[in-house]
Design goal:
The chain has 112 residues and is α+β, with helices and mostly antiparallel strands. 21% of the residues lie in helices and 28% in strands.
Length: 112
């Protein structure tokens, strides 16, 4: 994941690690999630993706939840950890535990 510098799906990992089975890779990702090493992204593709967390990330809502961008042309997802999502005052008795903010469009490579 560190080599790609972008988000990656379970299928992408299967292609890179042909000697590991899907269950092992999934369990490894789940362990990484539980220990705050990666965060999960639900972008507009319908495929769950994962990205490495920044050094001081706690993966807590809303502190470490940030904007993601999904390119409709090349189907890549980009993390923007410096762009936090808006913090909304929800109605009484609504307690958020997670948030997802995905912007779709064209990335610089596809826009030119």
């Amino acid at each position: 994941m560190a080599e790609t510098k972008s988000v990656i799906s379970l299928s992408d990992l299967e292609e890179k690690f042909t000697h590991a089975d899907r269950t092992t890779l999934y369990r490894t990702l789940k362990t990484f999630l539980e220990h705050g090493l990666v965060h999960q992204i639900n972008d507009a593709s319908g495929i769950t993706k994962y990205a490495l967390c920044s050094e001081n990330c706690t993966c807590s809502y809303p502190d470490d939840v940030h904007v993601h961008f999904y390119c409709l042309s090349c189907e890549q997802t980009f993390c923007f950890p410096h762009l936090g999502i808006p913090n909304y005052d929800l109605p009484e008795n609504f307690t958020p535990s997670n948030g997802n903010f995905v912007i779709t469009g064209s990335c610089p490579s596809c826009s030119s």
